[in-house]
Amino acid sequence: MSTFLYKLGRTAYDKPWHFLISWVVILGIVGAMLGINGIHSSSEMKIAGTESQKVLDKLTEELPAASGGQASIVFTAPEGERLDTPERLAAIQKAVGGVYDKDYVINPAELAAAAGASAAAGGQEAQGNAASQAGQDAAAAGQASTGADQAGAAGGEAPPYGPLVVDGVPVIGAMIASDASVALFQFQFTEQLTSLPATVPDEVMAAVNAAQEGNTGIGVIPSESLSTMPAIGSTEAIGIAVAAVVLFITLGSVVAAGLPLLTAIFGVAISIGGAFALSKFVQMTDITPALAVMIGLAVGIDYSLFIVNRQRRMVLDEGLTAREAASRAVGTAGSAVFFAGLTVIIALCGMLVIGIQFLSTMALVAAATVFVTVLLSLTLLPALLGFVGEKICTAKAREAAKKSAKKADQGFANRWAKGTVKFRWLIIAGVIIVLGVAAIPAAKMDLGIPSGASADLDTTARQSYDAITKGFGEGFNGTLLLVAEPKDASAAITPEQLGGLVQELQKHENVSVVTPMGFNESGSMAIVSLIPKTGPTDKETKDLVHDLRDPDSSFAKAANATIGVTGFTAINIDMSAKLAEVFPLYVGIIVVLSLIILLLVFRSIIVPIKATVGFILSILATFGLTTAVYQWGWLHDVFGFDTGGPLLSFMPIMVTGILYGLAMDYQVFLVSSMRESYVHGKRGAESVVNGYEMASRVVLAAAVIMVSVFAGFIFAPDAMIRQIGFALAAGILIDAFIVRMTLVPAIMSVFGDKAWWLPRWLDRLLPNLDVEGDKLIAKLKAEGQSKAKKAV
């Protein structure tokens, strides 16, 4: 491996224009494809096979209108005033009418009129079906008077709201709180929200804003489904700026520091551009490119840093020419880059076995980004070094290197390594205790999808959520859609059975409003809208969903039917449960595959096991800190958010895969230096200290860079990106500084030379990948001696 990469690096160095032009052409092709196909992304995150998705798919087939996405608009009165003045009621009525006139929005009044015409032309049977359809659509649009009557009939308290009435006529889909301080308009689209054209939300908001004309003082707040917000913002640039400063300090010149940045940006441009160019054919969520940018910048800078730093050290410490040093750096550090990248790719591609489409797409785009980054580091980077030539090290740096060589054993890295070796047992115990305490909150980790309840106070999503909760109850933020089907497939649901189901549902302690929505044409399916008393992410709502699905429940018996539950809230509950179920399988797969890679790289039994155990400590502590901050709300002011909430349901899987791969990067670069020292004759603690001294500076710089890049996403507009950015930044901080740079040398010194023990039969079986470049160095020495003899 090292010999091949040495030749590749030398070729790229000698023919820089060939490689640069090739990559520019690739970027141009990606840009052309992007221009032709355009950018397509979606916020849809569904998991095929879950109960809620099965119900939604069936609804889409049987009753397409009932399966469309729902949205809401909140109208608020100025402080201390009311909405039920003639001018404000007329303005709200006008706004509602404007929304119903838009394409892709269901107008219940028009459907009812069409149903009446169909009934007059087609007889009693058509009348029943049309009336059923009309009732369904009117209820779906948000009529709540039926629910209020049912609550009274069931002996409950009447809700503190009612229908919005203008001139004695109810406005379909609109309700008003009893104190008239807030009104709620709920409506339905003909398609799922993720399938709507991008212009539809803007058109709806333009129509709704008519309520503010004429200085009515009415406030208009869209629901989260109508609020568009970029996944990433401008704060990510801070992380890149910090990375640039660290690169300059580490590499000592602007030119050398600029190469890793240029390579990383080039890689992100090709990877993200390519992903977007294919988004017309492969559905991609909004969070996918943001995640790829995050990973691409981090690994792109780090991988290039390892190679450039190795080249500079060979020039400064060994007196090699820039050409020879670049070739050897690609052959040695490039081998470590290759296997480190391969570990990250394996960890990401492990998500494919889970079988969740949006996660698979995320994983493939991120893995492709890492793959492109590795290729650029091994080809474009040495080509750029060829352009720079001997200027990679200034005269001042060469002079400073001569002076520092005399004090090599007095540096901080040397003292730190010797200290960890001396106090190894105290350090091992201390690290385990500290990370164990940090991991405690992970036991209380609650998974879900961030909602308006945990959005920042200054966002429309949070303001809409709070206004709805105040005027109508928290459950109105998470309507459930129930589908009842007879247990006998040949039978039909009767109106009496539907009525019995509605009455039984209303008796549940956590049910606020139940509204029958009618039947399909064959009568084999009845639709019911149910509004819980608790919020979408509350445990009580999850328990309610489970109660509704129980085949032996009183609800199922009342209708003699099976009950399916769907809707955004139910889908999120099922998604979280599914991801929690497959998480252990995923961890097992990536650990086994990565252990094999590490076994090949280090030719040791103990080192891969130690690396994996250290990662387990890191990931548990990471989840503990993330839970404490984003779920419990600790230090929320510091991290720029207002309210804690459930953690992103796919965050543990995504972060585990990414963090495992990146943690093994540091393991490879740090421990491969220790093995290099061992292979070249040093033994015991001496090999640990010497290897640590060689690699610690660049590993420290790489870790600071990666933490800075990820931390830049902590203040992104999207709550999901914030959580992932924090978890990755915290994870790298813990794994690089506490585990790899502190715990690893302590444990390595405990085992000494036994850390490199490998059974003879396994040693013969495993191929020698020569990651340390030992064979390469021997070959180059032999060639040098041969040339010297010929010269004599």
Describe the SSE topology:
Blueprint (H helix, E strand, L loop, with lengths): L1 H13 L1 H22 L13 H12 L7 E7 L9 H15 L7 H33 L4 H9 L7 E6 L2 E9 L4 E7 L11 H9 L10 E4 L13 H16 L2 H25 L8 H32 L3 H28 L7 H22 L1 H9 L6 H11 L6 H11 L1 H16 L7 E2 L11 H13 L7 E7 L8 H12 L4 E9 L6 E7 L6 H11 L4 H6 L1 E6 L1 H35 L3 H26 L15 E2 L2 H29 L4 H28 L7 H33 L8 H6 L8 H18 L1
Parallel strand pairs: 6-11
Antiparallel strand pairs: 1-4, 1-5, 2-3, 3-4, 7-9, 7-10, 8-9
Helix pairs in contact: 1-11, 1-13, 2-9, 2-13, 4-7, 8-9, 8-10, 8-24, 9-10, 9-12, 9-13, 10-11, 10-12, 10-24, 10-25, 11-12, 11-21, 11-23, 15-24, 15-25, 16-22, 16-25, 21-22, 21-23, 22-23, 22-25, 23-24, 23-25, 24-25
Structure description:
It is a single chain. By secondary structure, the protein is of the alpha+beta class. The protein has 5 domains: 1-38 and 252-406, Up-down Bundle (Multidrug efflux transporter AcrB transmembrane fold), CATH 1.20.1640; 45-64 and 480-566, Alpha-Beta Plaits, CATH 3.30.70; 69-106 and 141-238, Cell Division Protein Zipa, Chain: A (2-Layer Sandwich); 107-137; 416-449 and 582-758, Up-down Bundle (Multidrug efflux transporter AcrB transmembrane fold). Helix content is 63%, strand content 8%. A 5-stranded antiparallel beta sheet has the order 2-3-4-1-5, sandwiched between helices. A hairpin with a 6-residue loop joins strand 8 (511-519) and strand 9. The model is unreliable at 122-156 (pLDDT under 50).
